[in-house]
Amino acid sequence: MDGAMYREILANNLLPSVRALKMGRDWVFQHDNDPKHTARATKEWLRKKHLKVLEWPSQSPDLNPIENIWRELKVRIAQRQPRNLKDLEKVCMEEWAKIPAAVCANLVKTYRKLYAQLAEGQQDRQDTSCVSSQTRVNAYALTTLSG
Prior knowledge:
Blueprint: H1 3-20, H2 35-38, H3 40-48, H4 66-80, H5 85-98, H6 101-120, H7 125-128, H8 133-146
Helix pairs in contact: 4-5, 6-8
């Protein structure tokens, strides 16, 4: 995937989802430092759409709950062993639909606690040694924004 495809995905999925969920403007978009996310054209596209983007320091720990969902989806897909691209697409859609909303809600709840702990500096030294001060600021901002 390149930057152009990423921006197309955002245009076709993110913006309609925000409208459908009636999120208004009081939310912050999060993505990591993948080159397609940080490309000048992507930053410009986000700016033109007036989207607030969470600053994400390089080499920071992954504090995005969606990564756990992707891992769950990968495990489910691997167990089904799709044989070709068409089968893979079908299996992806089926397994995605099977992941209960409660799993997502529980992940968000768990991450809120982690963000709060990071913001307060309550993680033990081993865990926070790789957490930058910017990440702690972001964690605090996320707990504030997410209620």
